[in-house]
Amino acid sequence: MGDAHADLPTEGAGLEPPIAAVRVLNGGRAEQHREHRFGSRMPRLWWVFFSKEWVPLPLQFFLIAHRDGPILFDTGIDPAITWDKGYISQAIGRFLLPHIFRFDLSEADRIDHVLERAGVSAGDIRTAVISHLHFDHTGGIAQIPQADLLVSEREWSILSEPHPEREWILREHLEIPSAKWRQIRFSPTEDPLFDGFNGIHDVLGDGSMILLPTPGHTRGSLSMLIRQAGWDPILLVGDLTYEAALLDQDVVPGVGEAEVLRASFAKVRALKKRLPNLAIAASHDFAAAEIVARATGNPPERNETRD
After folding, report:
1. What is the rounded end-to-end Cα distance, in angstroms, of the chain?
2. What is the residue-wise DSSP string for 274-289?
3. Alpha carbon separation from 57 to 36, 181, 185, 253, 287 (Å, rounded)
4. SS3 (DSSP) at 222
5. Which terminal residue of the chain has fewer beta carbons within 10 Å of its beta carbon, N or C?
6. Considering the entire predicted model, what is its pTM?
7. Which residues lie across from 264 on neighbouring strands?
């Protein structure tokens, strides 16, 4: 692996830029409790059952147009979860889900249809980086059987525990014959840019997409740093936070391990100090498309959804 902090190739150097575009794709809508997004001093089960405050939640994932082929960061949700009574095999999960999320989904929100509206065939996806294994980030893997699915080794280890479904990691929709999972291990680096992080992983070896461990939402959650000459750097953080502004304010959500989240928040803020103009895009942040557009210098695209 080369130095991840090295200058990236540019078009002016006679090379096609590694990344042509980053797009935020919308795979449906939902609502979550206010305490879920902004945190609460109340016990989790209290706000799950008794909170009356719901806030809107976009269900988004990211499409990276790389010169070697399109790459995804997460794969959205499978809308079948709203009508297939057997989608969640455990009765307690089926009971709890509507108390945690209110979904507004249709067949049009399945990843292959979302990609088609974006002008990309699901069959062309070569790689999908999975930020973490929750069902609303892995729901499209069955639609991209040809793609390598990159997940952190630590995140994958959750499946070896007796009840991963208690963490909303649904084994039956992950360990499927068509899925080409590839566990990644973060490698040490001497690059001072990544001081504090427990290693890095260069997705394609060209320095344009670097994976960083950012645990807290789940134990093996990761983020992806995208760098392209002429752009501001972009950090896709998955569910580390639900809004980029909350990370700056050190406001942790109501789920995950609070102290681990705060430690990851601090690492990301330190990275932002070392990378001027770092744009942070969270998967459920309504501002993600505008944040990415500013970073790339492109107007935000119309985020097409079904009526």
Report:
1. 46
2. HSTT-EEE-TT-TTHH
3. 11, 28, 31, 13, 11
4. strand
5. C
6. 0.93
7. none
What one-letter code names the amino acid at 165? E
Nearest Cα neighbor of 45 from 35, 53, 31 is: 35
Tokens (6 digits) for 203: 């997705």
**Interatomic CA distance for residues 297 and 231, integer angstroms:** 7
Token code pair at residue 127: 């790689």
Place of tokens 């680096």: 189
Residue 179 is encoded by which pair of tokens?
Answer: 């899925």
Per-residue pLDDT of the chain (307 residues; tens, 9 = 90+): 334 444 454 444 456 789 999 999 999 999 999 999 999 999 999 999 999 999 999 999 999 999 999 999 999 999 999 999 999 999 999 999 999 999 999 999 999 999 999 999 999 999 999 999 999 999 999 999 999 999 999 999 999 998 999 899 999 999 999 999 999 999 999 999 999 999 999 999 999 999 999 999 999 999 999 999 999 999 999 999 999 999 999 999 999 999 999 999 999 999 999 998 999 999 999 999 999 999 999 876 655 445 4
